Amino acid sequence: MSDSCCPFCGLVCDDLRVAADASGARAGSPACARAARLFAAPARATPRLAGQPVEPAAACRAAAALLARAQRPLIGGLACDVTGHRAALALAERTGGVVEHMNGAAQFRNWLTFQDGGWMTTTLSEVRNRADLIVLAGTDASRFPRFFERCLAPESQFGELHRRLVVLGSGLFPEAAHSVAADLVIPLPSVRLGELCGALRARLAGRRLDADTVAGVPMVQVDALLEMLRAARYGVLVWNAAELDFPHADLAIQAMVDLVKDLNQTTRWSGLPLGGNDGDTSASQVCTWQAGYPLRTAFEASGPRYEPLLFGTARLLEAREVDALLWISALDPERVPPAAACPRIVLGRPDMVFADPPDVFIPVAVPGVHHAGFLHRMDGVMALPLQGHAPAELPSVAQALAAIQQEMNHVAT
Amino acid sequence: MLRLKGGRLYDPEHGVDGLVRDLYVEDGRIVAAPGPEARIDSEIDLSGRVVMAGAIDLHTHIGGGKMNIARALLPEDHRADPVPAAGGMHAGCGHAAPSTWTTGYRYAEMGYTACFEPAMLPTNARHAHLEMGDIPMVDKGAYAMLGSDDFFLRLLASGSDQRLINDYVGWTLDASQAMAIKVVNPGGISAFKFNARNLDLDEAHPHYGVTPRQVIRALARAVHELGVAHPLHVHASNLGIPGNADTTLATMAAAEGLPIHLTHIQFHSYGTEGERGFSSEAERIADAINRMRNVSADVGQILFGQTVTASGDNMSQHRNRRHASPDKWVVMDIECDAGCGVVPFKYKDRNFVNALQWAIGLELFLRVSDPWRIFLTTDHPNGAPFTSYPHLIRLLMDRGFRNAKLDEINAEAAAHSQLRSLEREYSLYEIAVMTRAAPARSLGLSDRGHLGAGAAADIVVYRDDADREAMFEKPEYVFKDGQLVVRDGRVVKAVNGALHAVKPEYDKGIEKPLKDYFDRYMTVKMEHIRVSDDEICACGASKLIPHACKGRAA
User: Fold this and answer.
1) What is the pTM of this model?
2) Residues 56-85, chain A: which have Cβ within 8 Å of B?
3) I need a surface site. Which of A235, A332, B22, B250 has the fewest CB within 10 A?
4) How confident is the model at residue A175 (pLDDT cuts 50, 70, 90)?
5) Rounded distance, CA A370 to CA A24, Å?
């Protein structure tokens, strides 16, 4: 099928040619290597209890029993499509669970910034057609293999864009990832991005900075960079929260988005937060419309409770504040569940391999490969239709969760 | 068959003004009085009760990307209004940007049975339908936003034939499963992307050279010629700017006699008189509406308290960022399609500007003489959350109450306003017009908004209470498609609603240039913008209700 949508990164490229036969689905050109690898998903697998094969019904019964006993399960992972997210939220509501995505640590660097001050952002087709200056801050976008090809092609509907590319950071190689050369590279550790952006804001506001360097960058270079930023007609500041993995990274992101806001006093600038891998944009969108909060939400007797600082997966498991883990990971077999002291139930891709088998493993169909569905692109605007290419003898995440809920009706309470 | 016995009916579509009559309901429909041999399975005695059709909100931001931005932005607002799961109803949250579930329950609990999201971006259509799919209880529909999208502006700037524009508008309605077309700050959202901060009605767009007036004219004509029931829905230029009443009057004229709906007109009825350079032009605007039969409007009343403004008009919202309370705001450029801006607001009764805005809205309600052409809205949540409608109804129906409130607001604003001199009090019949019959007629919903035989049995029963706020807050019974869903202001049965969408006729040949455009410049395929009929139920609606359009000759 031509023009198929790819669920395996936040770009959700929708121009793939996917072939399917009895052996499964294969993504050909122009798929990236990641898509080619992940479209090849087996159509069957055996449910397991503590590593031992069982019938699907027995696996569902075991999962239901564990969830029925739990006071507060963590409904985590959430790597699936919108229909799966809806079912996961329904289960969380029923079990008094907490919902959190496997990429929560990265997502909440953005959400904390967003909820504190807001921001100005843009979407991929705007970038494609308007951006004349791209600043990659702490990322080379290599986790989004076709980002430059899809979003930064030279031709735009407003004529050819002579885009300039600035890279802020060290150890970043857009040349290698995308075969493009940066016009300016300012090496600095990502942990100092906030400092640099703060200095740029101060200089933009006309303040004098009594320093020779900021974040290791000579002041004269800071000023030269600022002149470039001010001269852009439509600048885009790109970051990937997953790569800003240091304490209080939300404050670095805040400095970046505040710089973007300030630059808009005289010209146009927007932020572009890269993300959306593993269905994380859809997961936050669905939870936001259904519960009001972008995940990290517990369904309590008094209603949904949102604790962005307390309800991260790692903290909940370490502090033993949850007594069961349901891990949903239907897109990438490498995203196995974290270790936990509590019982673990996994709804995972059929080719998932465990070093440490969970209590219950229910293999599920892969959205966009085995069945149709909906998935949001990283910008949250486009919800794309996923196609089913090769039917599987496996339930979708939503079907597996419905079966577990059915079993819960029979479990003695 | 169900008999609703002896209620006092307000059914303006049939000119029924408080007559005591029985209603009969069978298979989800209102049916004519059967003969004596008919079997009545159940009967409810409604003597002394007020009976109306289910209310219809034709402009309420209930679902779509910008509402989800507003929800995510305001955890502190949700925290004050948590909603637990109970009795088949989902958990969620309420107030300014309620969760989808809670939106549906609370609308139904006020006697609403249909709600229309007025600002759906075609690129965001699938998302909007997914969100609206999780709004229970009420039927839904959405207006597709056009007028700042680059494909349309290219057509207009290149002098394309109106027929081509009509085909594109028809395609957009069809592909995004929309009920009408809305234009927001015509051309202005696009101009903001080219760094313009303002775009007057006759000002040339900085890139395309076309004016907002040309945008309105082309779209109003397309909507009319395609035979879409609802007129072009216009959020005019210069929202919120003192002196914008002139723009608003010129915008009415820009339709050149074609039907046009001006939305949240309160935000567009401002003058520049007085010491503070901010005054009411409600009288001039209302006079124009009274005079021009092709114009309808909804008010966008503000009410005091915390809310959040969510709009496609990112140019205006960026300007308004300095009023953000709490101090945070989001502005977005979107997909060469449109944009959005979300700015939390706290309207204060002691603030001169806010108090005058409140008075201007009420003046408009009271000065527009024809309730068929002015609709009750707060532009939820921009002027106030929709849950304040019962309070607003009391302000309209009860002059003593209104004047008592007038005593509480900023005294200078109260002195500037002529509100106190307006004696009009809305009747129940007029309320039924503006919240039921008129929106149904405006949207072309022939079997909604009335109580005649053949209508869907969306029926609301109120206890007659001199305190109209208490009365409209808690209907005694609400029936949705014949099912009892609300009793004494509480949901007793959770149901799903349908999606209304128009299906105009247009030349599918438009897909060729459109596909070329998407292939060449966009990061998504044209085919993937399209939301198919089959997807509507997967998105969550109970069914798709298609509305055929009868094209009108040019």
Assistant:
1) 0.98
2) 82-83
3) B22
4) confident
5) 9
